[in-house]
Specification:
By secondary structure, this protein is of the alpha/beta class. The protein has 3 domains: about 1-160, 3-Layer(aba) Sandwich (Rossmann fold), CATH 3.40.50.300; about 175-225 and about 350-369, no CATH class; about 240-340, no CATH class. It is built from 14 helices and 9 strands. The chain has helices at about 5-20, 45-60, 75-85, 95-110, 145, 165-190, 205-210, 225-240, 245-250, 260-275, 290-300, 300-305, 335-340, 360-369; strands at about 35-40, 85-90, 110-115, 125-130, 130-135, 150-155, 255-260, 310-315, 325-330.
Length: about 375
Amino acid sequence: MQKDSQEERVASFAWLMSAARPMVHPQTGTLTRYPVGAMTGEHGAGKTSAMEILRTIVDRREPASVKLPRQEKIDDMTIHTEQVAVLAYDNASHLSAEHSDHLCRIATGAGDVKRSLYCDRDLAVFRGSRPAIINGITDIVTRDDLLDRSILIKQTRPRVRKLDSVLAREWSRIYPRVLGALVYCMAISLAGAEGTIVHPAIRMLEAAQWAAASEQAAGFEGGAVSRCYMATREHATDMAAEDTLVAALLEMLPHGETQYTAAALLEQLRDHWENGISKKKVPEDWPRNPRGLRSYLDRRRQVIESLGVTISYSTGQRTERSTSARTITLTRAGASTTAAAGAVTVPEPESRHAPVSREEIDQLILDLV
């Protein structure tokens, strides 16, 4: 990665600090929640090398990365969770809804039960959480639930390319120093993570606190980790604004409160798209029925509300035109309110965590190693 790419360094640091945590909390016995590293970059940006280097800091088992399992073999991801400390999937071009759901479950703690053999009634039980990182050229993480559990790492193209042998030799030389720096930061986070303040809207709050507690010791300014996590939320909002259905909804919806049935709203959206915006048929990925529209709105509710439209459901009266009594209430704020809803600010507390003495840090390092 480029030395002058500060955002990329912060994102890599935040993911690495989380990946170094144990799977099971030593005091409570609960599974650790790990953010998924989503690395993107143009062709030749060195995504595979950067991802494998990050992984080998924590897990040096071979191979350093594997291909994403096919749709029919998606359960292999659960088996990978048991066999490796860090999941690393290389050169992914697309994540299906099932892939995204599986990664969400692995990030926050998944359980699965399968038959041991087809000829018996024994069950194989899998349970655990693991850090995961995946790379691709385009925006591979697109679903809001997985974006909420992810850290975006944008890899920039190197100005000077190096031979693999040279890169491997240089990495082997500095690896002990990198590992020592990681242990040092972990010791600081172990002492001060609970008192560290990060943005309350972050989904992976504990992981963000863990990284933010030692961000200044790693050479970053205060609040860098919070801004890194919140950049993912901004990215989700930008992607929602580019979605054709959301674009049609924002253009059609008046300011104030409006009530629809799901069928009526879907019909108006289709009419507005086909006869107003594009003069073409609606895209294939649009919901095909009222139930699909409600499911879509539920899945994208958070990012739609960040664009200034609140969604609520209520039970009304059945009419001759609609057999459904459920109504969708959409409330669109004014222009100034919308801008405020989409803005992201990171609080800068006077003291991010309690000060830790050098003697305490040295003792914590001894305890860790």
